């Protein structure tokens, strides 16, 4: 009832076109939904990037790099439409977009996730200075929406970002790795406070490009005793 009242006073905006969603109260415009095409086969069996060659199992990135996470899931290609959508979600206060992203994720991946039997969801952390400036961590907002729908615990502070790194999209592959050196750590306090063993973790973020951030966080988790790390991102860069 409260959400209905809020939707009437502050109508939801469509995460695709940015206008008030039609029909009113929906998470996205019916017409706009048809613009988004979920990633389908053939795609990389490791990171989920689409690949052009049906005979290949992995994208060029996963063929040439050793990623230590078990498997990744993504919804859409990071194109011009989703670039604007995620920028509004990330920088312009459109936190409500997370509900749409989570809903679409459930539509395509709910059964796969149930089979994984995950212990917890962990959002990729941002530095406290960025969180202070932005007011929120978009990955945490998304993880909480997913956790609510999947009934999985979210540990928002299990991973910490100790280094205020440069934006990854401005760096080449080698610079990205150097940029992330000692950028993350695990909170032993949070780890010990959780009463159950943590063996399977799903990292949550908005965009996956080269995987440098996911790899850095995966390695920290594996060193702490986690056995399997997966990831979900709303969008992913193109594979080859």
What key phrases describe this protein's structure?
240 residues, alpha/beta, Rossmann fold, 2 domains, five-stranded parallel beta sheet, two-stranded antiparallel sheet, 10 helices, 7 strands, 39% helix, globular
Task: Determine and state the CATH class of the largest domain.
Answer: Alpha Beta
Order of helices and strands: HHHEHHEHHEEHEHEHE
DSSP helical segment count: 10
Strand order of the largest sheet: 1-7-6-2-3
**Dominant shape:** globular
| Percent helix range | 25-40%
Give the name of the CATH architecture of the largest domain.
3-Layer(aba) Sandwich
Uncertain stretches of 5 or more adjacent residues: none
End-to-end CA span = 47 Å
Q: State the secondary-structure class.
A: alpha/beta
User: How many structural domains in the coordinates?
Assistant: 2
Quantity of strands, as a count: 7
- Rg for CA atoms: 18 Å
Report the major sheet. Answer: 5 strands, parallel
Mean pLDDT: 88
- Looking at the structure, the CATH topology of the largest domain is Rossmann fold
Beta-strand percentage range: 15-25%
């Amino acid at each position: 009832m409260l959400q209905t009242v809020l939707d009437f006073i502050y109508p939801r905006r469509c995460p695709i076109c940015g206008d008030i969603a039609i029909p009113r109260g929906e998470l996205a415009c019916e017409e706009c939904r048809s613009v988004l095409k979920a990633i389908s086969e053939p795609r990389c069996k490791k990171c989920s990037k689409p690949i052009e060659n049906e005979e290949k199992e992995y994208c060029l990135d996963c063929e040439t790099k050793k990623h230590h996470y078990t498997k990744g899931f993504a919804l859409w290609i990071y194109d011009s439409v989703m670039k604007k959508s995620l920028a509004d979600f990330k920088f312009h206060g459109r936190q409500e977009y997370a509900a749409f992203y989570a809903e679409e994720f459930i539509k395509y991946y709910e059964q796969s996730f149930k089979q994984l039997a995950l212990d917890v969801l962990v959002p990729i952390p941002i530095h406290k200075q960025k969180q202070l400036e932005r007011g929120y961590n978009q990955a945490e907002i998304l993880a909480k929406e997913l956790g609510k729908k999947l009934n999985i615990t979210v540990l928002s502070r299990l991973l910490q970002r100790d280094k205020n790194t440069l934006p990854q999209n401005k760096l080449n592959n080698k610079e990205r790795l150097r940029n992330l050196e000692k950028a993350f750590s695990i909170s032993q306090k949070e780890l010990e406070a959780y009463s159950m063993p943590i063996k399977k973790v799903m990292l949550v973020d908005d965009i996956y490009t080269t995987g440098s951030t996911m790899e850095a966080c995966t390695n920290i988790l594996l060193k702490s005793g986690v056995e399997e790390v997966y990831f979900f991102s709303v969008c992913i860069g193109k594979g080859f």
